[in-house]
Amino acid sequence: MAHSEASPMEGSNRILEEYHINEVVGFALPHPLEELPPAFEGWIRIAKSLPELIDNGQLREEVDQLPTLSIDELKGHRLQRLAHLALGCITMAYVWNQRRDDDVKEVLPRNIAVPYRQLSDKLGLPPILSYADCVLANWKKKDPNGNMDVLFTFPGGDCGRGFFLVSLLVEIAASSAIQAVPTVCSAVQHQDQKALEKAFEAIAESLNNARTYFQRMQNFVDPNQFFNVLRIYLSGWKNNPKLPNGLLYEGVSDTPEMFAGGSAGQSSIFQCLDILLGIKHSSGKGSPAEFLQEMREYMPPAHRNFLRSLESGPSVREFVMSRGNEDVRNAYNNCVQGLVSLRKFHLEIVRTYIVKPSSNQQHGGENRGTGGTNLMEFLKSVMKATENAIL
Ligand code: HEM
Ligand SMILES: N#Cc1ccc(NC(=O)NCc2cnc3scc(C#CC4CC4)n23)cc1
Questions:
Q1: pLDDT for the residue numbered 100
Q2: Protein residue closest via CA to atom 37 of ligand 1
């Protein structure tokens, strides 16, 4: 990671800003916009009404009647992120509609496919709803005392709101761990044991705090609504038997294309901490490491580059193992333990929200993760690899 000569804290803020990482909300988009220019009101109107339009069977008709708009008027990162989020939500609703297997659309009409691909290319994001869209950019301050709400959601009652907002709160709580990353790198570079111990302590505290937000999921999200409704709208068209060839983006390409469904493997927080702490996931064909690497392509480019820059720096873990004093080793282990306990709790959540509801289904089929892997094996492997990093 590039180092500035300024003081570690000032330098670290400047380094993080360069990678579009905010000191308050971390990888989340600070102050997302809520409105598009008047010409685009149709996109916002439809995206804001997906549950109603799907329920009364009007969604696809409304989308088909949209004019094909030029995105030239959509200036600036925030406006483009809002438009990308709105079109992502409309795309998922248009493809999956009322969730019946015989009701899937294999062609996305040109009036949204063309601007959606143009915005995706501008932003370096995939033309499918991603974590960067519906968690990191899908929020607003509801009132002056800081209550938040989502901008868009899907059928399933308050399930989408709870799922996206709790994830955002975890991201924001864990952002103070990211603030400490440049300080860790600088302390290793200067072999400053005390500074390194303090930075690790800040990371461990941040992860423990993030876990308390994680626990709110059970208050806000109903497992059956999540599994039977919301999950369908987050599904992608890569290795998905419901869209075996992928989705045809009319007016963009002549052949259908495959893109993976939304995944929190697209969360930069966890991947960043894995890299910093030297946690290696099992690799090889179809492995967790391969899946997580692929999910980086679905992140905003600046965040993808931050992870790459972190990977190219000196190994923090090597330094702790070879030169760290006992306090540094303990502080390092507390950070790893913080990630282990988050991932153990997450496994419990997945049992409640996926394994149990899916066993209530007739076919009781294998729980497919995004990207077609068996998700429990994936998550257990990721948790075990974290546990194995304890010194
Ligand atoms: C109802 C709640 C949740 C369910 C059912 C759930 C389910 C899953 C599943 C199935 C995966 C496997 C990969 C994928 O398909 O994305 C996954 C991965 C992941 N989830 Fe969740 N999740 C939930 C809540 C959360 C929350 C609140 C967070 C915190 C931001 C989170 C963070 C992650 C991360 C970081 C991964 C990638 C694997 C890892 O780094 O451990 N999840 N989750
Ligand atoms: N059966 C089944 C089955 C059920 C769920 C999944 N995967 C899944 O929901 N991934 C997303 C995810 C995981 N953890 C978290 S926190 C925030 C998000 C999000 C998001 C938006 C979509 C981008 N996520 C796989 C299989």
A1: 84
A2: 265
- For residue 91, give the nearest of 105, 81, 73 by alpha carbon: 105
* pLDDT tens digits for range 154-201: 999 999 999 999 999 999 999 999 999 999 999 999 999 999 999 999
User: Tell me, what's the ipTM?
Assistant: 0.98
- CA–centroid distance, residue 160 to ligand 1 (Å): 14
List beta partners, residue 107: 248
CA atoms within 13 Å, Cβ hemisphere of 251: 12
Is the CB of 134 inside a 6 Å radius of any atom of ligand 2?
yes
Is the CB of residue 369 below 6 angstroms from any atom belonging to ligand 1? Answer: yes
The pTM for the full model equals 0.95
Query: Residue 303 annotated as binding?
Result: no
Ligand 1 centroid to residue 327 C-alpha, Å: 32
DSSP tag of 154: -
DSSP character string of 72-119: TT--SHHHHHHHHHHHHHHHHHHHHTT--GGG--SEE-HHHHHHHHHH
Instruction: Work out whether strand 148-149 and strand 140-141 pair parallel, antiparallel, or are unpaired.
Output: antiparallel
Give the DSSP letter string of 48-63: HTHHHHHHTT-HHHHH
Binding site membership of 211 for ligand 1 (Cβ less than 6 Å): no
SS3 140: strand
What dihedral do alpha carbons 366, 368, 372, 377 form, nearest 10°?
A: -80
Give me the residues of the chain with pLDDT under 70, please: 1-10, 362-373
343 CB within 6 A, ligand 1: yes
